[in-house]
Amino acid sequence: MKKNSSARKRARRQNGQKTGPKSALTKGLESLAHTVGAVAGLASKTFAGSEPAGAVQMLKDDHARVKRLFDQFEQTESDPEKEAIVQSTIRELEIHAALEEEIVYPAIRALDDDEEHQDKMDEALEEHHVVKQLMAELRDMVPADDRYAAKFTVMAESVRHHIREEEAEVLPKAQEGNLDLEQLGKEMALRKQQLSSQPDARGSRRPPATSRSLKARRGPQAAARKSSTRSR
Questions:
Q1: Which residues contact 104 (CB under 8 A, 6 or more apart)?
Q2: Global pTM?
Q3: Count of other CB atoms within 10 angstroms of residue 103
Q4: How many CB atoms neighbour CB 9 within 10 A?
Q5: What's the pLDDT at 178?
Q6: Residue 84 — very low, low, confident or very high, per pLDDT cuts 50/70/90?
Q7: Phi-psi category of 54—alpha, beta or left, where left has phi over 0 and alpha has psi -120 to 50?
Q8: Virtual CA dihedral for 64, 51, 183, 91, nearest 10 degrees?
Q9: Mean pLDDT taken over the chain
Q10: Nearest in space to 135 (alpha carbons), one of 155, 106, 117, 121
Q11: How deeply is 193 buried, as exposed, middle or buried, from its count of CB atoms within 10 A (0-12, 13-18, 19+)?
């Protein structure tokens, strides 16, 4: 009886080792396998959708990106964050406008000789022109400057209006017309890569934000001191 009891105890211990809590090494390996599987799944989804988007979808993606930047600007109270958002928005809009003016708009304009269609394309270009003027002014400003936030808000409203009209009237014309949107998308992707890799020459010449901010705040006092010195 004692022998049988000892044998049963050994059997239970062996079974407990097999079915008991997992070792740290086993858990670690399973966790690693789970992580690798998740990353592989994400990568497969990413590369599955990495085919070049058509021209219309690329433009809509750009629109969504700048609208998010507008929202971020409205939600932050930090001056450094505001300046970073403004400069990022300017860069995004400059590249976007170049793609439209060099590639997309000429192709859409050529779809129809109708006067109303041609006028609509001219209006789109004029809206670009207005936004470019605001961008040029904002580029050399800092949050401490007067009307900095107001100027960006006006630009954001202008761009939002432009996006609504473009997505409602201009882009549907491209989709309905005899355009190879996939080929246009490839041309846009190549041009965007070129533009994105170019250094921002104007931005590189800007003095640091802090020095420009001090200059903006001290400008009137400095001018008054210079005038007083000359009068002596």
A1: 55, 59, 174, 184, 188
A2: 0.66
A3: 18
A4: 10
A5: 87
A6: very high
A7: beta
A8: 40
A9: 78
A10: 155
A11: exposed
